[in-house]
Amino acid sequence: HLSSGFLALFFFNCNEGSKVSFDVEVHEYNELGGVRDYLSLGKSKLPLMFFSFFAVHMVCLVFWVAVLQRNAAHVHKIHYFMGILVVLKAMSLFFEAIQYHVIKVYGHHKLSADVPYYFFLSVKGVCLFVVILLIGTGWSFIKPVLGEKDKRIMIVVLPLQVIVNIAMIVVDTLNEGNSSWGTWRDILRILDIVCCCAILLPIVWSIHNLREAISTDGKAARKLVRLRQFRTFYILVVSYIYFTRIVVVLIL
């Protein structure tokens, strides 16, 4: 059983005891309106789809910048990091659209399209973890500096995430028929989930600290609002991990 978008070529030698040796070059494509499309029918619209996502992210970026300008008195450093994250996500989508367009037209990858895509994809992944960690620790809007436990989490998680991202790029470029492909893919997915779970720790610590502060501090109402915000953020991060790291794997 072949999954959608997966192309395969089979050769059977029916002469028992004989040996066959040959070189074969296969071109698999759909011809639509007299134009060759090297993507499968299910993936033919991906370049347009990713470019549309890029445009949506750029609109969101303009909206985010406008919000920051209107609320300049309440802007913290973390808000600028969030803007940078949107830029990186938009650029990764733009070059992913180019990557699929190149495959659609030429039938194979080109280094000039792959390198920018994998670069922005890796940097975006690391930046996402940085933003979640910094928000989880309350940096810039609750406390000006990171605590020792927060620094240890960052020292461990960020290098591991960089290694996982680079390794995923290498595995992604390997042939799926390779016997070790599935094993390495599963190992990297497990490490990625471990990194995702580790970034929950600062959020849990912040919630615990706010609970203690509410019982001892006179400014209980303000702390209660922040506690609710961190609980909401915790639920959002858990949902993000569940849908992007677990549900997606089960579907595929």
Question: Would you write up a description of this structure?
Answer:
The chain has 252 residues and is mainly α. Helices cover 69% and strands 2% of the residues. The chain contains seven helices and two strands; from the N terminus they run ββααααααα. It has a two-stranded antiparallel ribbon. A hairpin with a 2-residue loop joins strand 1 and strand 2 (35-37). The radius of gyration is 24 Å and the shape is elongated. The two termini are 14 Å apart.
Summarize this structure briefly:
The protein is mostly helical.
Q: Helices and strands, in N-to-C order?
A: EEHHHHHHH
Cα radius of gyration in angstroms: 24 Å
Strand order of the largest sheet: 1-2
Kindly state the number of beta strands.
2
* Straight-line distance between termini: 14 Å
How much of the sequence is in beta strands? under 5%
User: Please, what is the average pLDDT?
Assistant: 83
Total DSSP helices: 7
Which regions contain 5 or more consecutive residues with pLDDT less than 50? none
- Tell me the structural class: mainly alpha
Main sheet characteristics: 2 strands, antiparallel
Helix content: 55-70%
